Amino acid sequence: MADAPSDAPALPRPVLDLAPDRAAAADFYDYGDLLTDEETATLRRLRSYLAEDVAPLVEGAWERAEFPPDLVKGFAALDLAGLPYGLGEGRDEPARRLFLGFMHAEIARVDPSVNSFFGVHTGLAMGSIHAGGTPEQRERWLPSMARMETIGAFGLTEPHGGSDVAGGMETTARRDGSGPDAEWVLEGDKRWIGNATFADLIVIWARDADTNDVRGFVVPSGTPGMTITKIEGKTALRIVQNADIALRGVRVPDDHRLSGGSGTFADAGGVLQRTRANASWGAVGTQMAAYELALSYAQQREQFGRPIAGFQLMQELLVQMLGNVTASLGMAVRNAQLLDAGRGSDAHSALAKEYCASRMRETVAWARQLVGGNGVVLANGVARYFADAEALYSFEGTREMNALIVGKRITGHSAFVR
């Protein structure tokens, strides 16, 4: 195909305004004003890093389905990974869930895959050790994970177990020996494990062959018998390095079994509630980006002699998108406030994830619609969020499963069937 004439008018290239001193244009009701000055300053540092070092990389990385390794060093320099647990320079208590939510929204606004990487490490992997580990285990692993010198992954989902993985878990753990020299032998398979290809340790959940309880085990990468294979050909979250994990006679010492808390899968329940709430914020950030890119495009794209932003149908579409973003952000904010006050529940987080992800799916589709045929071109930005939204819609509990969690709470009847 011949190159376009040099005097051809340039096509619009929508952009996100990532200036660190300005809140996202999609925060129409200024929910960011709920943050403290210190939290706002931290968020500005994050925005600067995202604008300067992350945004320029993600389009190419997404297309190549690669994770840029320098992102680990960049996030480490920000000293954010330990925030949920009060770990890090000058900290003695966890950050507010409200601030952590805005942090995840900002990362997802630049790239949902990068937010998924950060959430797996800080939420699922670190959260499992914090909730289920003994004080000694926490001290052994969490400080280096907070510094991001050690990267974590979370091995729960299985080839035959997604929504029902806790009840139908096939991976087993068999105790071999007794006393301090005892080991656990892990057998089974895990699937869709984010960060697994480059993680230093993976929290593997397995069913105790003797008690039938589901327990967590910290398995270092390179442990004999553990094979990690990257999942290829994804059409969403392509920067996330999801993998299949085969466990064949994998031996870990007894002190790698998470034995604090209840010592069972119940410890993971609180972790999943936290990450489900975080997923709602990721859906908010994804919507924000789609709306802002669509708005930028509409202001540049001309048809019939004027910008399409001046057409009634385009304005109506943008307002619907902004309404979705605003309603989702309001729900995520209130859920975080309830969690900070100790009044949040699984049902609250489930409703937030279900609603925000559903509205996100509408918003990214409307953004793609507004940008027209150009909306399927990666360089226009919208296409990446449109594709990634499909994965966000399903993980951390599908819409249907989260609906049933809320349904049980409001009716008093469980509709789950085994």
From TrEMBL:
* PROSITE patterns attached to this UniProt entry: ACYL_COA_DH_1
Keywords on this record?
FAD, Flavoprotein, Oxidoreductase
Q: Where is the Acyl-CoA dehydrogenase/oxidase N-terminal domain positioned along the sequence? A: 36-149
One GO term (biological process)? fatty acid beta-oxidation
The record's annotation in SUPFAM superfamilies points to:
Acyl-CoA dehydrogenase C-terminal domain-like (SSF47203), Acyl-CoA dehydrogenase NM domain-like (SSF56645)
Q: Which InterPro entries match?
A: ACX4-like, Acyl-CoA_DH_CS, Acyl-CoA_Oxase/DH_mid-dom, Acyl-CoA_Oxase/DH_mid-dom_sf, AcylCo_DH-like_C, AcylCo_DH/oxidase_C, AcylCoA_DH/ox_N, AcylCoA_DH/ox_N_sf
Q: Which GO terms describe its molecular function?
A: acyl-CoA dehydrogenase activity; flavin adenine dinucleotide binding
Record PANTHER family: ACYL-COA DEHYDROGENASE, ACYL-COENZYME A OXIDASE
What family classification does the UniProt entry report for this protein? Belongs to the acyl-CoA dehydrogenase family.
Name of the protein described by the UniProt record:
Glutaryl-CoA dehydrogenase
Which species is the source of this protein?
Answer: Actinomycetospora cinnamomea
